[in-house]
Write a structure and sequence with these properties.
single chain; binds acetyl coenzyme *A; 12 helices; 370 residues; Peroxisomal Thiolase, Chain A, domain 1
Length: 370
């Protein structure tokens, strides 16, 4: 198992003597692994085609398909929310893994479009009856699911938890300017979930990872608080809560993605000694088919091993990776033992990568991680 260096390693900071990366500490800790043992997904019922959108904004099916690969996207209707979609995906993942809701220790919900800014994960916990689980949100835009999966793996590896549900769910249709053709054609709503379980270190499903942020480029892609003020008393005022629709410099984000995603994946391959030719699948954040193709070409990965469902769902932000994973597991493309190179990237700016081994349900006794 190749460990990723601690965050300090890249920045040239002194190593934390209490870090598990310290061999002296590491030997004393019952470090285990984290296995990917189940998945599920959910999308809203309503599909909006490119032709539908061209009735509203000055665009065309040809422009959208040729520039992005997107043919349609799902849009949440009345009664469909982050909570309902995430709960549906979570139920499917529980069923796939063969778990009861009461067995779940932690629910991590990656979302940038919560039902409740105080946190939507507790609503999901209640909806699925996982009353033993602690539940909280994690926000990192389109990198959110990968960052959550990596975070969950740490709790499983260090023995804190046995079973974790990692969910990526977004409803960006709430936050689009539907008259802005540069953004409204790109995004859709959906949710995906992965069940992760503690396992022996030798069976760890997270072979290596990298996580990166660059706030200096934040303005490239924002869903930012507006600065309207409400007068209170005298000269005192308070900000009025509310967010401006998604604003994106598409070309800058495109250039960022085709530069940073290959770089982070190359680091992962180099650190583990894995050859690109031995990857079973490239499972990248689904933002644009041209980005998927550029990354595949960089590593000479045949296009049939690059997973894509952009044509049906567009960019569902934190949901794209688990939504795609679930589809490919259920139709039999991803098999137990397959090696997957994954990368998430997006607003923040944030990006990261992980080398994953899909395990699938069954065969791990409780306390196997200890
Ligand atoms: N239909 C028709 N024409 C359009 C549309 C549209 N939907 N959108 C833009 N155009 C026009 C533009 O106005 C422009 O016209 P002009 O030259 O007359 O001004 C022309 O098409 C070209 O526009 P570009 O922005 O240069 O088009 P580009 O080829 O760069 O494609 C796109 C735009 C698809 C947004 C691309 O830049 C892209 O995919 N960027 C990456 C987005 C991304 O990956 N986001 C991921 C993160 S998401 C997250 O974290 C939440």
């Amino acid at each position: 198992m190749a460990q990723s260096p601690g965050p300090g390693a890249d920045a040239g900071l002194p190593a934390n003597p209490l870090s598990a990366a310290n061999p002296a500490i590491r030997g004393a800790l019952p470090l285990g692994g984290a296995a990917l043992v189940g998945c599920g997904s959910a999308v809203p019922a309503t599909s909006l085609s490119n032709a539908d959108l061209s009735e509203r904004v000055d665009t065309s099916d040809d422009w959208i398909r040729s520039r992005t690969g997107i043919g349609a996207r799902r849009v949440a209707g009345p009664g469909e929310t982050i909570t309902s979609l995430a709960a549906q995906a979570a139920f499917a993942a529980l069923d796939h893994a063969g778990w009861e809701p009461q067995q779940v220790d932690l629910i991590l919900l990656a979302t940038s479009s919560p039902d409740d800014l105080f946190g939507t994960a507790p609503r999901v916990q209640a909806a699925i009856g996982a009353s033993r689980a602690v539940a909280f949100d994690l926000t990192a835009a389109c990198s959110g699911f990968l960052f959550s999966l990596i975070t969950a793996a740490q709790y499983l590896r260090n023995g804190s938890f046995q079973r974790v549900l990692v969910i990526g769910a977004d409803q960006l249709s709430r936050w689009l300017d539907w008259d802005d053709r540069r953004t409204c054609v790109l995004f859709g709503d959906g949710a995906g979930a992965v069940a992760m379980q503690a396992c022996p270190a030798s069976e760890d499903g997270l072979l290596a990872f990298r996580m990166r942020s660059d706030g200096s480029r934040n303005a490239c892609l924002t869903l930012a608080q507006t600065d309207a003020q409400r007068p209170l008393v005298g000269s005192t005022s308070a900000q009025v809560g509310g967010f401006a629709p998604i604003h994106m410099n598409g070309q800058e984000v495109y250039k960022f993605a085709v530069r940073e995603v290959p770089a982070v994946l190359a680091e992962l391959l180099q650190s583990t000694g894995v050859e690109a030719a031995s990857l079973d699948w490239l499972l990248l954040h689904q933002a644009n088919q041209r980005i998927l193709d550029a990354v595949a070409d960089r590593f000479a990965v045949p296009h049939e091993r690059v997973l894509s469902n952009l044509a049906h769902y567009g960019n569902t932000s934190a949901a794209t990776i688990p939504l795609m994973l679930d589809e490919a597991v259920r139709d039999g493309r991803i098999q137990p033992g397959h090696l997957i190179a994954s990368s998430g990237f997006g607003a923040g700016l944030s990006w990261g990568g992980a080398l994953l081994r899909w395990r699938g349900p069954g065969g791990i006794p409780d306390s196997a991680g200890a």
